[in-house]
Amino acid sequence: MTSLDAAGAAEDPAEGPAPRHRRMAGEQPVVLDALLADLIPGGRPVAREEAVTLLRRHLGRIQHRVQQAFEAHEVSGLAAARWLASLTDVVMAGIHAYTEATLPKAAGDKPWALVATGGYGRGVLAPYSDIDLLFLTDSGMGPRGRQAVEFMLYLLWDLGLKVGHATRSRADCLVDAKADATVLTALLDARPIAGEEAIFHRFEAAFRAARAEWGLKPFLAAKRAERQQRHARYGESPFQVEPHVKEGRGGLRDLQTLYWLARYAFNVQRMPELVGPESPGGGLLVAQEARAIRRAWDFFWTVRFHLHLVTGRAEERLTFDLQPVVGARMGYTRHGLQDGVERFMKHFFLMVRDVARYTRILEPAIERASLGPPAVVPASDKALTAAGFALADGKVIAAPGHDFTIDPVLMLRIFRMARDRGLDIHPLAFRAIVRHARHVVRLRGEREASAEFLDLLSGRDPATWLRLLNEAGLISRLLPDWQRIVGLMQFDTYHVFTVDEHTIEAVGVLAALERGDLAEVAPVASELVGQLQSRRALYVAVLLHDIAKGRGGDHSELGAELAQTICPMLGMTPEETETVSWLVLHHLLISQTAFKRDIEDPKTILDIAEVVQSPERLRLLLVLTVADMRAVGPKVWNGWKATLLRELYWRVAEVLAGGLSVPERDVRVARAKEAAALLLADRPKEEVAAFLDLGYPGYWLSFDPETHARHAAMIREAKEAGAPLTVRTRVLEARAVTEVTVYCTDHPGLFSKIAGALAVAGASIVDARIHTMTDGMALDTFWVQDAQGGAFDAPHRLARLAVLIEQALSGRLKLREEIRKLKREPARLRAVTVPPRVVIDNHASNTHTVIEVNGRDRPGLLHDVTAAISDQGLQIASAHITTYGVRAVDVFYVKDVFGLKVENERKLASLRRALEAALEAAERPGGGGVARRAAAEPA
């Protein structure tokens, strides 16, 4: 076999030498002959400049041919990668022959071989991947050889190729491979392209002998450490919604690692060689598993090929802007209620799960098989033995005579036994569970199986065991509705995980609350979780809270209906079933109220109390809300959200306890004034009386006495100094916000100008209270954060903030021009659409019209929206600002100039049109912007 024939027959680790595309068969020799005829016509090499032009033209042709066939769906990504590597071999062989013909011969020079390594060595190549080459000798490179290497590399660089290269002798290769697992891995994939092929074969024999001498253990340890670092960098969870196709968990690199381990341990060239009892390792795979690995390999290569072609670079991350493009190119279209991109990503995550599953099964099995079969010994633990289990390598395995297919409840019981004893499940047992998971269908509604599952759900470290059950496919078999959320992503920038992974994460957060691990960040929920009477119902509610995602309609309502069926099947009592269903139905109630409504408004509190009715349900709902929010993503939770949830909880709890948190308005105002006067007792009575006359009732009900006292001092100082504008800032570290208070003469558009100045300063408004005093002065309070969701606390930024507010109010700051200069959102986020929506509600408050504005977030959006409200002649009393990824949800409590609700239909229609016009700017090209803050709507 010639070197070109060997390259053409490059074996794919997932499948091996499959029939290539018809265009590839017998193509290399013909293409090479044509290339050599151009480069070395009549045996005389052309000038170097002409050679570069010819090679560049040839390279462009082959790349275009492969791309054209791939985009016409004539070849899959894997076949295209093989074809591109095969044709690239021709270019390399042509460059080698041209180099040999160009450089003068030298007597006694040492022969060498041109060898492909790394991914190129495996015979697969993505359009913009590096080309890894090894210039291999028996015992060192001669002078002409070194000149040839330099000549070839400069040619390759002139062609614009990214080349990784090394020059080594056979002995150097072995030394470097032993010292560096990266070199060893690259050499595992080595194959000859041109030059003295016998040199490569001598190296290959020596390398195989050296691996046998070194043993698998060092290489396995190195690959595990490398994988751990890789996952830490690209995401521990395989279900992150912007996955890294190559390096992420469950991606191509994890598949390649399995191949490398099998290649190292058993000298196999492809994964199907591990199928069957006569195969190396005694049958580590069955044919179905080998096919699944091959499908994943082909799928990921197709995705990767599209990524490279779409971006024109070696892009490996499947970002939001690329997902719909790649999904459409692969033929995913809308089906029923699911968009094409969501169907594509679900398929992607199912493939990822398969790879993660086979990594868990196959890697330790390869390690074990290289050492021989394990010794299965009875456990000294009598309960473990009585349950049908034994130990192998110190891990739990089914005892001889106990078959998962005959008694499928063993597949659930083994997880509980392993958990209770702090043991791992043996890879052979886990492999058997995966292979026989379909038998768990027989356990639906079966009492013992339900008890085992609920024990795993609500016992120690439930997230770990639920992930294993999910990975093995057992939850879907036990709860058929679960299958619909496995791998299901929501195409937005807010949710970090797929729905099933988010749910399991939420169960883990609930367990952490019970352990007290989150006492500092969620003190109220951590305290309440120990007081609950319906603990098991809460765990099931967390498991089911998003079970109806992706079905269309309100997932809370649909999920509540499903809970009515699922809970009895799990053996739960009617009371537990009703509690779970109610929690699923209302699992967004507290968060939506805390972040979108004025919790100082008595009606807000009374409305929630009417829905909740029970202190126990309120406790359950708060704990569920905290678990749900913290499971959305790492940047979702912050001190400000914790404060809002905590304050809302205590207000509602006091009402449910029969307290007076919502007494008559006049009584509450009088109490607030009395408390403020008490703190101002050292001031002259006339001054205190004047201050108490300044505020309308809404002002006195919006702040605590200490804040009232600070306001009194600020107003006094402003009057004494004759200052037309006073800006005060106060960092509230416990709440992760900075309070900005502005005192000046009131005028239309004041809120909008301050909001614009804050946007220019880089501050994100999360809440606001707007008050006009009886003397016509405005006392407006804003709570702001930085872009990372923390307090806006840098001294120089606080100083600039005050200056910008002054400049905006005086007209010296051109707000619209400055806002246009602000940083726009990353291009990858623009693919996520946010339909503008305006909701006007005259029932949420007894005293105000409540406006809810939904739209695409961008710098200055709040400025534009509040300007539109002011232009309609309305006064903003309070604002509640939230962002969910790129979606802004802003709520305003407003009155007309007479202090009344806006109820005139013509006025409401005009208001709606003005707000929709302000929102539409965010959806125009170039209108998108960075989110004002990282926010967190529960999933």
TrEMBL record:
Task: State what protein this is by name.
Answer: Bifunctional uridylyltransferase/uridylyl-removing enzyme
**Entry remark concerning the domains of this protein:** Has four distinct domains: an N-terminal nucleotidyltransferase (NT) domain responsible for UTase activity, a central HD domain that encodes UR activity, and two C-terminal ACT domains that seem to have a role in glutamine sensing.
Among the GO molecular function terms of this UniProt record, one is:
[protein-PII] uridylyltransferase activity
Please give the biological process terms from Gene Ontology that the record holds. Answer: regulation of nitrogen utilization
One Pfam family from the record: GlnD_UR_UTase
Q: Which organism is it from?
A: Neoroseomonas alkaliterrae
In the UniProt record, the gene name given for this protein reads glnD
Gene3D superfamilies in the cross-refs: 3.30.70.260, Beta Polymerase, domain 2, cca-adding enzyme, domain 2
According to the entry, what is the taxonomic lineage of the organism? Bacteria, Pseudomonadati, Pseudomonadota, Alphaproteobacteria, Acetobacterales
- Enumerate the SUPFAM superfamilies for this protein: ACT-like, Nucleotidyltransferase, Nucleotidyltransferase substrate binding subunit/domain, Poly A polymerase C-terminal region-like
